[in-house]
Amino acid sequence: MRIALAQNNYHTGNFSLNTEKMLASIAQAKAGEADLVVFAELAVCGYPPRDFLEFEHFLQLCETAVDRLATACVGIAAIVGVPVYNQLNQGKKLYNAAVLLEDGRVKQVVAKSLLPTYDVFDEYRYFEPAKSSRVLHFKGQKIALTICEDLWNIGQYTLYPHSPMDELILEKPDFIVNIAASPFSAHQQAERLYVLGENARKYQLPIVYVNHIGAQTELIFDGKSMVLGKDGASVVQLKKFEEDFAIVDMGALTTKTTALAPTHTMEDISAALTLGIQDYFGKLGFKKAILGLSGGIDSALVAVLAAQALGAENIHCLLMPSRYSSDHSIADSLALVKNIGVSYDILSIEKAFEAYETTLAEPFSGLAANITEENLQSRIRGMLLMAYTNKLGYILLNTSNKSELAVGYGTLYGDMCGGLSVIGDLYKTEVFALCRYINREKEIIPDNIITKPPSAELRPDQKDSDSLPDYELLDQILFRYIEERQAPVQIIEAGFAAEVVQKVMRLVNMNEYKRHQTPPILRVSIKAFGMGRRMPIVAKYLS
Amino acid sequence: MRIALAQNNYHTGNFSLNTEKMLASIAQAKAGEADLVVFAELAVCGYPPRDFLEFEHFLQLCETAVDRLATACVGIAAIVGVPVYNQLNQGKKLYNAAVLLEDGRVKQVVAKSLLPTYDVFDEYRYFEPAKSSRVLHFKGQKIALTICEDLWNIGQYTLYPHSPMDELILEKPDFIVNIAASPFSAHQQAERLYVLGENARKYQLPIVYVNHIGAQTELIFDGKSMVLGKDGASVVQLKKFEEDFAIVDMGALTTKTTALAPTHTMEDISAALTLGIQDYFGKLGFKKAILGLSGGIDSALVAVLAAQALGAENIHCLLMPSRYSSDHSIADSLALVKNIGVSYDILSIEKAFEAYETTLAEPFSGLAANITEENLQSRIRGMLLMAYTNKLGYILLNTSNKSELAVGYGTLYGDMCGGLSVIGDLYKTEVFALCRYINREKEIIPDNIITKPPSAELRPDQKDSDSLPDYELLDQILFRYIEERQAPVQIIEAGFAAEVVQKVMRLVNMNEYKRHQTPPILRVSIKAFGMGRRMPIVAKYLS
Q1: Greatest CA separation found in chain B?
Q2: Alpha helix (H) ranges present in A446-497?
Q3: How many Å apart are CA A230 and CA A377, to the nearest integer?
Q4: Residue A252: other Cβ atoms inside 10 A
Q5: Active site (annotated) includes residue B142
């Protein structure tokens, strides 16, 4: 049996686009004499559709799309991910399902059993889990069709009381198909290969795995669809971060002896963030980005990633010096814009800053300068950038990193402005690592930007290290608290100073209110700020 | 058997405060010769604890608190809501549970079976559902202990495949206890009475119902704990929007023949929003609020609610006229501040506006005035307000209403600034209704503010109706789309112009990016923007 893997970039709710892409894949599969073409989880509507699943009309559009796809499935069959109604009068109204389209109609329906409801996933919000599983019968073969999480219930501590494969295996299937919506994070691929390999070996069956590619707001899907032999070794591997298509003959699988070339983590992160920017703009119908260049490393990195994603000709930078800006902040920024070939303007914030000082002189008379004046500068810059977006149709890229978002070292409505946070899921030390990766062959980001001490330049001789521990130290504490959810005492016992640990944890907790108002953050870690981390704002824990 | 109902205002993660309150209730119950005191769902840690439940240390603090409460339970028993570990090696790690504390220790544990995972609820994100249910044995009586949703699986279309009461009733319990975390919304009380009444009548058992009171960020709990007779009629009803305590003798329940006085919806909404402000400030350790008064109805209403909540002496208003401000905008605002007794400053935004015009003159030369200049004015006001918060320790109250949030008729980083959105879950027509309610006895909000046509006053002679349908019309379309999730064709068939319907729905969808960055919104409706409505930003549906 010849099976086509269709790895497409869908757009949530864009039924005409998604259907067109799927019809093209069906035609391509037919031209390649495939028997069956496999699409990703919920391909019809895009993943995640989120609360659109509560709209009947949205679900009708899913049905209409399936009808259109079915019509094309003559002389070929397709496995298509789509939400379908639960016909019983109990339970959630929908299943997260896949349909087998054959002979111009829906032949069989399979529902997902295991519904991830953690981190960024909300599937039990919408879907009823399938209570039992049956194989698909197709051209004399039996297919164990599973949907993403259905294969992930392995290991000593299992999240779900049963695994659908343990039921499906009783029917002696010929192979497993797994349709997925498995987002990228830095170490996801290793886990994915482990999980799929374990299943192949445990059940002694080959696996056809089809994933999404493309970004949906903060979630970035990396593709890497594949076929594994029953020994768990990869036979076919589709591209990462690109649409791709392949046809495999399931009767003639030969294990590739060459392992996949190991990837530099920063190569993947660079590709992921580039795709994240591209799809945010492309799917919203925008082309041009603006950002503020401070002379620091965060904005420099975002400028490079934006130019990679959208083309240098679509990036405009604002350099907005103040009385506290160092000479090198402008010089370094100018060197950067020259290196990457983006346009720029230089606008002093002095006039606006003086106007606020005048306006506020009377009510604030006798009060000492404090964070107010620093925030004013940051907010004036945010306002100038937003004025450009309004006047000229840019989207503002936010340049906050994960370390500063974590401890609230940023100004709400100032440097926290933007339509999309590009590096908000990279700790400062990872920002440095990614810059070094970008500079691996030649100096794209001026060396001085990377080596000078980080500073917000909002008061004379300010350095980040005046307010925060060194980033090497800070990031380790943050990782232990945010990613690993360690207790204060655990972190202290690991050798970090109690006073620093307590300060950092308090800062993280008391700044939930700021993170509540950040733009969506492209997710590349196992625990990003945003939809996958849901904390109360009004809480007292550790603060 | 004498049972005490302890209706307390908890603070998420504030274990010392919560435990002290519960110890005081135990002492009060003991003094009142109660046999058993009942606390609300997850009282120990506050509801909702959200992702704090993923922190082992947080759970240890829950256990420590229970140990402390248990020590006090000698000569009296308590039912205490708390997360407990699932001891099996499969499933979610926790149960949403209640423990019976007696003789100084945990005597029995009951876990919640039905886990709401919809709207604002995420319980299956954290908890394993109980597979079976057993009654509590206490002083020779059998108690069917249920946790909130456990009683809500009624009606023709049930969300869950079983109801724990159907299993518990087989043990012939003497009465039902339901501990809840049931947030307020305008029509919640009617549904709650219906659900509890149905259960009482179906199982022919009295019900002791204990709910939270108090606001946790956007969720407002209204209390209204109660005891119902087996006929479903209310016997005892605790206060709404206040802490309360009562002891009932279960052997001598007499149905009150007098029905509860019917409540004006706006009375409840006013009380809910007042409590929402109070707890947001109090639990964060703040006292003073600032807001911008535009002369319009939204900011006037927020000023009144803030003064109700925090005291007029803690409210400061900024009046920030521009070249486009009408004469009446200042006069009306001054009349309001005089009526309610709050302090104010008048700050012209002209200087700052001119500074931006000068700064942007060159890059924007030759470009026509557009939304940019309107947004600049709104953002200058936001910056001045934020400067006050930074300099003087206020929290800024946001004054956006639900209609404008829905269609994006507001400026990000301008009038959308703030720490808390007070009326973001009230449609404009509800804002008018609440103002009329507030003025029911005397003119608190100057009549001219209520009767003049709404305007943002960001350009000459601007009216909201230049850009938007009349609010009477707009709000009906919005309610059908947002609360009722109707399809375009349904709304059009109900008699609304197709062009208007399509424009409104498109505006709602394309402004998800703005709502992503709003402050938390006090929830008073069945579908508020925020944690209970999760939509993709990058989507194409209907737009």
Answers
A1: 87
A2: 447-451, 464-467, 471-478, 488-493
A3: 61
A4: 8
A5: no
Chain B CB contacts of A516 under 8 Å are 519-520
The pLDDT value recorded for residue A256 is: 62
Spatial separation of the C-alpha atoms in residues B118 and B122, rounded to whole Å: 7
A222-249: per-residue pLDDT in tens? 999 999 999 999 899 999 999 999 999 9
Sequence-ordered strand ranges (E) for A358-485? 395-398, 420-421
Average pLDDT, chain B: 95
Choosing from B45, B62, B112, B435, the catalytic residue is B112
Q: What are the φ/ψ torsions at residue B75 (nearest 5 degrees)?
A: 80, 5
Q: Is B54 a catalytic residue?
A: no
State yes or no: pLDDT of B304 exceeds 70: yes
- Fold classification of A268-515 (topology level): Rossmann fold (3.40.50)
Nearest alpha carbon to residue A441 among A522, A338, A339, A326 = A339
At A16-26, the pLDDT tens digits run 999 999 999 99
Determine the distance in angstroms separating the CA of A140 from the nearest CA of chain B, rounded to an integer. 36
- What's the CA gap between B428 and B448, in Å, rounded? 16
Show the tokens assigned to B406. 């829905």
pLDDT of residue A300: 98
Is the whole-model pTM more than 0.90? yes
Reply yes or no on whether the pLDDT at B298 is more than 90: yes
pLDDT category at B262 given cuts 50, 70, 90 is low
Q: Is there a contact between B147 and B153 (Cβ–Cβ < 8 Å)?
A: no
A112 has catalytic annotation: yes
- Partner-chain contact A376 B387, CB within 8 Å: yes
CB atoms within 10 A of CB A59: 20
Half-sphere CA count of B285, side-chain side, radius 13 A: 6
ipTM of the complex: 0.96
**Hey, which residues does A223 pair with through a beta bridge?**
A240
pLDDT > 90 fraction of chain B, expressed in percent and rounded:
90
The minimal CB distance from B356 to the residues A280, A352, A539 is found for: A352
Q: What's the 3-state SS for B124-187?
A: HHCECCCCCCCCEEECCEEEEEEEHHHHCCCCCCECCCCCHHHHHHHHCCCEEEEECCCECCCC
Distances (CA, A) of B290 to A337, A396, B332, B395, B428: 41, 29, 18, 6, 22
Lookup: tokens for A462:
């300010």
C-alpha–C-alpha distance, residues A318 and A171, integer Å: 64
Catalytic residue among A45, A62, A102, A112: A112
Q: Which two tokens stand for residue B1?
A: 């058997």
| Fold (topology level) of A2-250 | Nitrilase/N-carbamoyl-D-aminoacid amidohydrolase (3.60.110)
Residue with the bigger pLDDT between A297 and A89: it is A297
Q: Give the tens place of pLDDT for each residue, A51-83.
A: 999 999 999 999 999 999 999 999 999 999 999
Instruction: Kindly report the CATH class assigned to B2-254.
Output: alpha beta
What does the angle CA A223 – CA A298 – CA A286 come to, to the nearest 5 degrees? 55
Q: How far apart are the first and last CA of chain B?
A: 61
* Whole-angstrom distance, CA of residue A540 vs CA of residue A538: 7
* CATH 3.60.110.10 residue spans of chain A: 2-250
Encoded tokens for A362:
């009377």
Q: What is the largest CA-CA distance in chain A?
A: 87
Tell me how crowded residue B338 is: count the other CB atoms within 10 A of its CB: 11
**Delimiting residues of CATH 3.60.110.10 domain(s) in chain B:** 2-254
Element (H, E) at A316: strand A315-319
Half-sphere exposure of B169 (CA within 13 A, CB side): 13
**Tokens for A267?**
């190569």
Stretch(es) of chain B classified as CATH 3.40.50.620 = 268-515
Least confident of A130-139, A215-224, B347-356, B463-472: B463-472
- Tokens representing A326 are 């160092």
Chain B residues whose CB is inside 8 A of the A386 CB are 375, 379, 412-413
